Structures are given as C-alpha cells and as structure tokens.
Amino acid sequence: MRYAEGKASRPEGMGTESMPLQNCLPLKFWENYSAFANSGGGHISVFNKGSFDSDSEETMAEIRKGLFDRSVVSSNILMESDMVKTPDGFFVKVPSAERYVRPVFIGGSCETGTFVRSEGKTVRCGSDSVRSMIRDSSDAGSDTEPTGLDISIISTDSVRAFRKSVMKKGHIWEGRSDDEFLSFTLSAADSDGWLRPTNAGALLFSDYYTVSSIYPGYRLRYRDEKKLIDSEDGRWTGNVVDYYLDVSDAIDLLLPDISGPVKELIINALAHSDFYFGDGVSVECMEGKVKISNSGLFRAGRELSVKGAKDRRNPAVAKILGTVSHCRGLGRALSEMDAAGYEAAIDEDYRSGTVTVSVVRRGAPRAERAPAAERILEAISSDRSITVGRLSEVVGLGRRQVERHISDLKSDGSLVRIGSRRSGSWKVL
After folding, report:
1. Peptide bond preceding 103: is omega within 30 degrees of 0, i.e. cis?
2. Are 351 and 277 within one domain?
3. Is 232 part of any domain?
4. Using N-to-C axis directions, what is the helix angle for 259-272 and 330-339, rounded to 10°?
5. What is the pLDDT of residue 6?
6. Phi and psi at residue 249, in whole multiples of 5°?
C-alpha cells in the first residue's frame, strides 16, 4: 500500500522517540508524528512490553486507520515502507512534511494540536509558528500585491541610492523615471488606476513605521565592535535597502576576503524571513566571525535550501537585491567561505521558528575563556555526542552552569550544535 503519493521513504536523522505498547496506542504517538512531520522528520519506536505479537499487528492497523481519519491527524505523509515490524514491536519512519501540508496537527485543531521538536523533546507549537506554517502552505499574500497605501510612503532618496548602486551606462533602468523603476521591479503596481506600493516596495523603500504596520515582526539589526544599526532607531528610514547598503559597506571593511558570500547570506536571510512574527533579521559581525539570524524556517527544508532551492517568502525582495549581490542559495556562499578558510554551521530552531548561520575563520582569536569553559570544550572534543547531563558530571558543575557556558561558547563562535539536541553532535570551531 502507498499512503502519500509522491513521497519518498527516507530517514531524516532528526531523532527518535520511544514508547511502550500498553493496551492501546498512546496519544503521544500522534503528538510525535505531528512533531517529526513539522520538524524535519524522525523515527518513532513502539516496543512491545511482553504483549502478544498480535498486539503489534493490531496497533499498526490502528495507526493505518488513524492516518485517514481527519479527527485523528490532519495529513497522512507515510508510505507502507515507513512502518516496519521488529522483534520487539515496530517503528515508524516519519518524513518531513512538504510545506504545502504543514502544519500537520492532531485532534482536528491546528491551534492546539500542532507539535514540533525542540531540544530533543516534543512540544506544542505556539500560535505564531502555526500561523507561519499556514502562510507557507500557500503562496497567497505575495509580496508583489499592492498594499493599498499611497505611493508617497516610498522614500525617493532610498530609491535613488539603490539605483545608483547598481546602474552602469546602458543599464536597462537608465533614463526611466522612479515610478517606472518601481513598476518595472514590482515594487509598485496599478490598483484601481493608482500606482501603489507593493509589500515588497514597502519593505525595500518605505520606513520602519510603515513596514511594521504591515509586518508586525519586522525589524532589522546589525552590530559590530564600532557600529550599531537598528530599524527602530528613528534616525534613518529603517527600510531594507538602506539597511543592506549600510551593512554591505561595513562587511566590505571587516571581512573583505569573504564579503561577497557574507552579503549573499544576508540577502538570503532578508529573502526568507517571515516578517509577520519573530524578530526580523539580525547580523552580528566581529573579528573573523559573523552570525546571521532570521525569523522563519526553511520553506523548502534545510537540505534543499542549502542546495539552492528558491522557495523564498519574499521573492521580489530577493530578485531586486539580487541585482546588487548574488542570491543563489546557501550552498554556494558556504562553499566559497569554506575555500577561503572559514567554517559555517546552520541552526534551525523549530520552536522559535528561526534560522541562524554562524561563520568563523579557522584559527580566529577567541575571547578569554573561564577555566570551566575550557574544560567543557575539552570534554566535547573527546566526545562530540556528549550530553549536557554528562558534561555536568565531567566538569563538576551544575546543569544550569554548564548550559550558560555552552551559550557563551556558541555566542563567541567557539562551539556549534549540528542537528537536534537529541541526535545531533557538537562541533568545536
């Protein structure tokens, strides 16, 4: 039997959840099914605690039935080969759900029945994350739709600064008016006979207060040792174009050897950010390292996004900024930085709905560390799969102290986590 048409049977490597078979299928089976489907996939092992072998068969039949019952679960994404009988029970391999069917939820209500994986645990999704998945499941609300606002919200200075940054003699925009440029780039569109800014035009060329009235989670920040930029500042427009041009100049000075791929990562963050929730886009740039974060998970999944999938939330923004710098996907930028002597790590936090890319130069100087932090790094170097609980025993500190040191080490670029906290591993940089 084939359950979900077009779905491949594959392990996703996002962890395993085990549970006993007791009388009937426990509710947490469906909670874990939802969580793995929404968080990159995983395995659910159901072990038979001395029950009859027929109990496993009956429970597997119950799961098959539940997969087609919308009062139990919203979507069936399994194939027959994803459910395997074992001597001790059975396991179910849950693939990552395509964005078109997320959120996968249980009990008939996405508001209360959507789960994700976080720190090796299955947790109920917050309303912001649920709404983000719902938006991602279709392409409604495109950034090329007119906002209904007057064209006067567009900053002429921002438009001309952007045009100046890309135009050369004979450029296609040469000789066109600002209104023609806005229409040509889908930053504005005709609405009932009036030229009105699109969502993309508002993001790119208006101001923070206008954009945040459309996108509640809109915010842009940049920080290095000498410079601080925040769209909430009030001393500048706070729009995407002015932010990018200013940050681009700073990156050219601080990281000249990898300024191109770093700027590509920043454009990717702006193109993929879900500005309806969260905290927008943040860039931190220090000596030999940079960290770029954006609200919103990979719509195409992490693996395909790294390979260059162009399933962007803000495609018009990507297209326009792509005239200044490349926007080819993560993989090409990461490869270029690796060739230049930098290491990168990607952290996708399903609970908060954020993606963070951390880049550090091999051999970059570190901030002075506490002796306990050094002991933690030594222990991790010896065992990359070591747990926080085991670290607490090895270094002789309480769990919360270990977690604080780990947070500091991750912040200064010394340590990254690859994969989930349950099944992933540490990487010392």
Report:
1. yes
2. yes
3. yes
4. 160
5. 34
6. -65, -40
What CATH number did the domain enclosing 49 receive? 3.30.950
What is the mean pLDDT for each group of 10 consecutive residues in the chain (429 residues)? Answer: 34 66 81 93 84 76 93 94 89 92 93 88 89 84 84 95 82 85 92 91 96 94 94 95 95 92 94 92 90 92 82 89 80 88 87 89 68 83 82 79 81 72 69
Residues contacting residue 42 through CB under 8 Å, at least 6 positions apart: 12, 13, 14, 15, 16, 17, 32, 35, 36, 94, 117, 423
From residue 292, give the alpha-carbon distance in Å to each of 257, 303, 360, 393: 17, 18, 12, 33
What are the angstrom distances between the C-alpha of 17 and each of 91, 122, 420?
Answer: 10, 9, 13
Backbone angles phi, psi at 32, to 5 degrees: -70, -35
Contact 314/272 with Cβ under 8 angstroms? Answer: yes
**CATH number of domain containing 388:** 1.10.10.10
220 forms bridges with which residues in the sheet? 281
Adjacent-strand bridge partners of 24: 22
Query: Of 291, 330, 331, which is closest to residue 413 (Cα–Cα)?
Result: 291
Q: What is the per-residue pLDDT for 5?
A: 34
Q: Which of 328, 361, 394 corresponds to the end of one domain?
A: 361
- For residues 196 and 339, membership in a common domain is answered with yes
pLDDT at residue 270 in the model:
95
- Please state, in angstroms and rounded to a whole number, the distance separating the CA atoms of residues 9 and 79: 7
Which CATH number fits the domain that encloses residue 305? 3.30.565.60
Say whether 201 sits in a helix, a strand or coil.
helix
Q: Could you identify the residue written with the tokens 């977690």? A: 403
Domain boundary among 70, 104, 136: 136
Q: pTM of this prediction?
A: 0.78
Q: What is the CA radius of gyration of the chain?
A: 24
Domain presence at residue 4: no
Domain total in the chain:
3
Residue 317: inside a domain, yes or no? yes
> Residue 184 and residue 171: Cα distance in Å, rounded?
13
In sequence order, the β-bridge partners of residue 359 are 290, 344
